[in-house]
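for the writeup, i need someone to sanity check this before i put it in the appendix. the sequnce is what the collaborator sent (i think, or maybe the updated version? ugh). structure was predicted straight from it, no edits. if anything looks off just tell me and ill rerun, i have time this weekend
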Amino acid sequence: MPSTERIREFLLQLPHVVETMQFGDNLVFWVGDKAIGGKMFAMVQLSGGGISGSAHSENKGGVLWYPAGPERYPELLEIEGIFPAPYLARIHWVAVREWRVFRPAEWEDELRAAHQITYAKLPPKTLKALALPIKQQRKLIAERRATLAKKKAAEKK
């Protein structure tokens, strides 16, 4: 049976994956950095109490949320332990109640597909940034973060 750490290690091996801690104590995985237009493709609950802030907390929020795509979404909802992800079901995200719903190889297939679904939806500008050599990509991300921080500071004034 997979664990949070095993899933985390797998996700971080996928191309262009960035990890953040958001929405309470949730690990959020992005295809591309958010600063350059990256998009979220998986969320892992660390405390076991459901995705923080969800209407389905208290172990009803699941251990992991991810996009299934419109074709696979109805099929996955037929599996016991998988349900529409609160707030994200309208864009075909599912939530998985327990790690044992899938075997390790099935988890990898599901999450690889979620990564691909998300990558395919990235805007051209983000894809162009991801194609840059890593050193240039890091520089661009740092510049964008600095610009965003300045905007945020100006808005507070």
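Residues 4-122 form a domain with the Aspartate Aminotransferase, domain 1 fold (CATH 3.90.1150.30). Strands lie at 17-22, 26-31, 39-45, 64-67, 82-84, 93-96.
thx in advance!!
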